[in-house]
Specification:
Layout: E1 4-10, H1 17-27, E2 31-38, H2 45-51, E3 57-61, H3 68-78, E4 83-86, H4 98-102, E5 110-114, E6 121-122, H5 126-143, E7 155-158, H6 174-185, E8 190-194, E9 196-197, H7 211-229
Parallel strand pairs: 1-2, 1-4, 2-3, 5-8, 6-9
Antiparallel strand pairs: 4-7, 5-7
Helix pairs in contact: 5-7, 6-7
């Protein structure tokens, strides 16, 4: 059985981090380590993770670097498991789905939680769902691949992939579109696993809630798709 490293990129998730770690420890039987990559959260998220004193939990507190994509990339670099998993840390992505993702590896190289595959559901507000649907329609239109949830961010992948596919370290969730695109172009096989994505109950969303914020969010994804399509 392959060993698993779960990467948790965190910023101000004090209300969620302890419960998230407990659930991962409960559900992931092949777990080798949980790597919390925290961007020096003012609310002390990293301190809460450290105080849990779990031998499988490692905390990396970054004081000179920021950003979701770079935090995930740092976690992958530090991971010692044969499979790496990463996810949001607001409990919108249920840890009990991780074993379902792992079940498709090694048959597939990448297994991803998908809100829009069979069995999936996006339970967020209508505006956020529409924004995400438009991003995925746009990505498929320009990139030509049949991926239902290009901006998933809930991924299990063989660690060996990252010797050939490099994660971009800038931006917010745009990295996921580029990662999936580059992986497919390299010939890696991807499986989408439907899951129910819920809105966070505690803490503040990093992607914003207002119409203007979501518009900016969608625009940045659109620009990244064009860069990928036309070689930028």
């Amino acid at each position: 059985m392959s060993t698993v490293s779960v990467i948790l990129p965190t910023y101000n998730e004090k209300e969620n981090i302890e419960e998230l770690i407990k659930q991962i420890l409960r559900y992931v039987g092949e777990l080798k380590e949980i790597i919390v990559v925290d961007d020096d959260s003012p609310d002390g998220t990293w301190e809460i993770a450290q105080r849990m004193n779990e031998k499988k939990v490692r905390v990396i507190r970054r004081t000179n670097e920021r950003g979701l994509a770079s935090a995930i990339a740092r976690g992958i670099e530090e991971a010692t498991g044969e499979i790496v998993v990463w996810m949001d840390c607001d409990l919108s992505m249920p840890p009990n789905v991780i074993p379902k993702l792992l079940a498709f590896i090694p048959q597939y190289d990448i297994s991803m939680g998908s809100r829009y595959a069979v069995g999936g559901k996006d339970d967020r507000g209508l505006l956020r769902v529409i924004t995400s649907r438009m991003i995925n329609f746009y990505a498929n239109l320009f990139l030509g691949f049949r991926v239902k949830d290009f901006d998933s961010g809930f991924i299990a992948a063989k660690k060996e992939i990252f010797s050939r596919v490099k994660l971009m370290t800038t931006g917010y969730g745009q990295y996921c579109i580029r990662f999936l695109y580059d992986s497919i172009k390299k010939g890696y096989r991807i499986k989408e696993v439907g899951f129910r994505f819920t809105d966070r109950e505690k803490g503040v969303s990093k992607s914003g809630e207002s119409f203007i914020q979501l518009l900016q969010h969608g625009w940045s994804y659109g620009i990244e798709v064009l860069k990928i399509r036309f070689g930028g």
